[in-house]
Amino acid sequence: MATTPSKIQIKADSELMKNQKHAVALAPQQHFQVLQTANGDAIFFSIGSEGAFYVTREMRASDSGWGRIDLSSSLTDTDGSAGGKAKWFAVSQNPKTLDVDVAVIVSTAGNDSLYVSTGNSCSSEAWADGISWTAVPFDAADGQAPSPFVMSDMYMLTENTAKDPSRLTWFVDIVSNPDSKIRRLERYFIEMNSTPKWIRHTLPSGVEEGSISSCLGRRQGDVYAGIYSFGKIGSSKSLEFTPTKNYWDEESPPETARLKYPSGTTAITSCPNQDGLTNLFVAADDGLYIFRPDMQMDKDTGDLIIPSSPVCNTNTFQGATRLSSSTTGSHTVVWGLNGTADLVYASCPVGEEAKPASWSSPMQIASAVSQFAFYLNRQALNNVVFALIGDQTLLQLTREETGGCWNQRHILLPTPETDKVFEANTFTTHVKCTDGNGVPAPQSLVTLESAQETSISVNNVYRKISPDSPLKVRADGTGSIVIVQETSSLLVPSLTVKCDDQTLIVNPRAKIAERLSSIKCGSDLRNVRFEDAKGQTRSLVSSDISSADLDAVAKCLPNLLEAQSALPSDGSKKTPTKAASLAGPGETKIWGIIKTGNQLNFVEGPDALAAVNNLVSPGGYSNLASTGYASYSSDMIAASAGDLFRFLGGGWDDVVNFFFDPDDGICKFIVHIGGKIFTAILDCVSAVAGAIEFVFNKIKVFFEDLVQWLGFMFSWDDILRTHRVMKNIFTLYAKSAVDQIDVLRGHLEHGLDQLQSYIDSDPWQKLQDDGKPIGDHEQETKVDGIDSPQINWAVYHTSNGLSVATTQESATVSASASANNSAIENLLRVLNDAVTEEEAVLKKAISDIKAEVFDKIHTMSPTEVVQRVLKVLGTFLIGTSKNILLKLLDLIKLVFLGILDILDAPLDIPIISPMYKTITGGDTLSMLDIICLIAAIPATLIYKLAANDVPFPDNSETQSLIKAKTFSELSSLLSEPDQASARFITADSSSSEPLHTATTLTVAKRVVAILKIGVCVVSTTSVAVSIAKREFKVSGPAINGLSMVLFLASTSPSIAGHFVSVGKWTYIGDVLLYLGLGRVSIDNMGLISDFVWTDYISPTIATTLGMVGFITAIWEQTEKTEPKASDTLGFIGRIFSSSSSMLTIMTCTRIFGPEVSVVAFGVSLVCASHSGILSASSGALILGGN
Hints:
By secondary structure, the chain is of the alpha+beta class. The two termini are 25 Å apart.
């Protein structure tokens, strides 16, 4: 017999898909620099296009991941600089305490002012309220300030020395003749603790503005730091270093050392080492040079450490317009923006900066770059780079150290504007936590781990995880966790999910591997067709790609998938089991592609080995095991896989040949480009994913193409037709309820009398039951895709937007409240009397049902559940219900007209509202629209999976359902006598091909299946709304209106009863549904705020309706002479739905106390959520004819 396991089960479904964020990407900035917090998060300083000085902080546990503060507004508002704009700034960070010093130049009406703020904490939180500024007016003792006063540049360096733990070295260049066409510079050293603060420094008088670049540092043997300058100094170019002061005589100027710079020098950068002494790096024609701290005296010469050896005119520091460097932890890194606007970098171990053999080869990471800033993460020891691409796009590029792969993302800022949507390619993963019976497990504590440091969004909150820092998160009220990883490639980290003793490795690319495995030959690639984002069908490959090229690429894919399968699925590196990880290849293993003329040819075995041997002479590749790559050719360059594939992403067309050598379960990648041979070890799954993407580039298939083919794209036209059919069903049903309000009393009295007669007949004896516990039925339920991220897309975004959603208040509701205020008060008193009279009986009944049924429901068969519930309820049920419900009906009559207004009320909610306007061509989202869209997505997608067809083709029959004017007309369209063999008429209905089973369903059964399936996410959204209202105190017309519409949509399985197997129970169910809708409407229209209604009357009515609804469900099930599996699951779903309603009274703190109410609330939500899953399972079985 089934039991309810205590351990949580976890499953996950990942998809490559477009996803959205209610945020705006940080726009290009005039100037930016970046520092870091103690845990490696970014502190991004910038001047915006409007002239404000900002700090943009990386913020874990926030929605967008970043927060922006205007640091200069306080200056311009209070310091006499109204209308002033930030012109330039400098920042510096203490190497030990990580405190931040920052200075800004503000220009007002042509005059510049200088401000400084020192000793600021590096923590993200410390910047939330801005910083305190100190004005530093020009006060030099040896001269008057030029007028206007114009500053040109500024440099800061913070040191931590034994005598001064926060020594600030600070230089400012000013324009001495601001009104001249040729503007000259004067240099000042700023010393905050002295008077005057501005101290004239050594700089020849002939230096023109813009002719030099400078940086700060300290030489070996110097007490004070100083300034390096390169450019036209005096009459010729010069590279100089001048200390801040003359240590031996501070009254005398410091001595300048003139260094011998290499030919073609274009840029310099300084980098303090771990001792606080500075390496100076210089970019020149023949490569990158270093001036060690002990080689920076007058006439000293630098050493060439990275010779310039361009590949395809890049991968070189030659012609660099800017350099930047850093030493942190175990590495020193130099970045440069070279003469072709390519961003390149190289690194070496700390302490080996002067050894050429220790440096990696420069690799291009981005192109068309106009600005950049970077830091070496102190925690992860990886590169974090911010690059402005083409003056248009600001990106953050982060290198993870496992495979050296680069993750690219935008800096996203929060926005109050609901129409702002940021869209990106993502790997989105939907994790579901359940018990062993498949029942959602809300608030499950889950641990997320990664073998690589990565930033992710978890349930719409920005998070970071790394190998050393796992993340603990809780599932939401439906047991769900949604993980979004922004990506620009297939190289995305895998995740490990743990809960209790369960461990699940989530490879976001798993589906991609499955889809790629179907490609065996070139014709398979030629035949790939898919719908693009505009709904147009297109081919994957262009018609001008030759069959030979397609065959060559197709033969690569099985080999790469095999290589990927041999690597750790958690994303970690594989350690070779052999002694030498670079062992020589076996002749039968190596394979690759060679280019002959304009044709690609796949080679393997001896042919491939011969081709590689020809590339790496002398000696050949065959002897590599004994000597290593470097011994064979100066043109053979070892690189990390991530760096290499990042470079090849822009240079794929220049690749001549490439090969893969699988050895000991790890592939070595060899590529010939620009006369050079690059090698990389593919020892993790991300690295192989990079190889797959590169191979596709060779046939001009790029990442955006792969997203549309291998990922998921919403077919909005199909979804919108389902949405419109659903919307019309709900609209006409609600109108029918309003139209029948005056005759409802007679229907209610008659229906309850019939129910009493039915109860008296011992109805449970008619149930056809195989004795199988409900838990066993639950474990057998399966709906393909129900927990996929695309099916839950609208639910996810709706849940995230609830707190800021807005709508218009209904004039009809307000008028109704005013006109009927006295009558409402009188009816409330009558209802309160009726509820009070029955309160004790109901409390005992529901408490007994919870103990005898709800707490054991998974171990009981449906018949046992019915027996126990009826035993508890006894014969008092109908009499009690009639007394309360008839009085409720009188109250509902006064307010029912306002329901239709609320269904049509416009809803402004982030993501969904602007997306809906886009996909519909301009329609405004209403309350009913959002719920129908939420339901239409799973209904359409699950139908497609089951039937390989759309539920509602674009034809006249579908239009008839959408355009029906009354519920009677709609019912007649779905209930025609000849529909036993009805089919939808499609454009190719004349085809002789047999249709899928689901296609031959009657239109009515299609509608029933769709309504049942859609409830799965409607119930999930209801849970989210309930939690938002109760736990997070979200209130207002928008969330209240959604509560009403959700109730209507959640009853869709009952509404579907009008279209198949109509019986007496159908019309009794209608009456109960109308009453329930009326109760929910009164709850949410704001007509009654008295706690007597909210805390006593309304919950009691909900419980009463749940009890009566339970009996109605039994009646319907017992009338089925040969119930199918779909009927049984539907009935169990109704049991859980009724249970959720019956528990409502127990959720009230005033009646049952806080401890009981909290537990009951949780159980009620689980029942509601699970009923939707069971309903969807029932609908899916209908599609299969069961």
